[in-house]
């Protein structure tokens, strides 16, 4: 019981924006593993975005990591560096941090489309 409480306390101690990003990465990465969605529907493919209006691919391509050691490393980096940025550089300025993340997301999507990279290599 204590371990669950400690995990809950740790999770609640993560800054809000980092917590949303961390949780979204876990949910999007485990959804295909649990059979909720096909991994092919999460990657960045330009044709379905334009012809079928599958705009979720713009976001899920940046959040999707294959389950395994790669996912653990990416989650560690998201937690470590996003927490540090949110509590130091962008402390008290959540809109600035969301703008920064949005700009980086847009850059990732543009580079991914130009280089035909279906999944982001940097989270």
TrEMBL record:
**UniProt main location, coarse:** endoplasmic reticulum
Membrane-crossing ranges are 20-37, 58-82, 102-122
Q: Where in the cell is it found?
A: Endoplasmic reticulum membrane
Q: Where is the signal peptide?
A: none
Keywords, sorted A to Z: Endoplasmic reticulum, Membrane, Transmembrane, Transmembrane helix
- Residues in coiled coil: none
Give membrane topology per the record: Multi-pass membrane protein
What the entry lists under Pfam families is as follows: DER1
Q: Which GO terms describe its cellular component?
A: endoplasmic reticulum membrane
Q: Which domain of life is it from?
A: Eukaryota
Keyword Hydrolase annotated: no
**Gene Ontology BP term (one):** response to stress
Q: Cross-referenced PANTHER family, in alphabetical order?
A: DER1-LIKE PROTEIN, DERLIN
Stated family: Belongs to the derlin family.
Purpose: May be involved in the degradation of misfolded endoplasmic reticulum (ER) luminal proteins.
Query: What name is this protein filed under?
Result: Derlin
Q: What organism does the UniProt record list as the source? A: Adineta ricciae
